[in-house]
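[retry 2/3] 2761_t:CDS:1: previous attempt timed out, resubmitting with same input.
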Amino acid sequence: MAKVAAKTVKNVQIKCMVPAVKATPSPPIGPALGQRGVKAIDFCKQFNERTKDYEPETPIPTIITIKPDRTFTFVTKLPPTTWFLKRAARVEKGASKPGSEIVGKISLKHVYEIALIKQQQDNMRDIGLKGICKSIIATAKSVGIQ
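[retry 2/3] 2761_t:CDS:1: success.
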């Protein structure tokens, strides 16, 4: 008698950067969800509703978990540190040669304000404000912001 192996079905996670209030079922979201049997328009409506308080076009890191029954849940995170830094320095993009090229400057007040926002993030809760500030300063150097 042959044994039938039980089929193990797992949740699938998709990590993507979605602009706040501007989620559309176009690539990369639509195809990523569509190939797993999830209606992208449903995700877009829920995402846009959840991010309506953000400034439009703010990049929001999102983790979408698709269950075997084709239902989904998603978690939104805070925007990346580089986005905050570029916005504070009023620059469009970082330096092409960080370390030798400076594209903008920010004050310690900006670093402190960004640190207060980033402290709310789950992975930063146990880190002191001083450590977060050091991390932000290092990120600023890697982007070309003084």
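[retry 2/3] 2761_t:CDS:1: The radius of gyration is 20 Å.
[retry 2/3] clearing retry counter.
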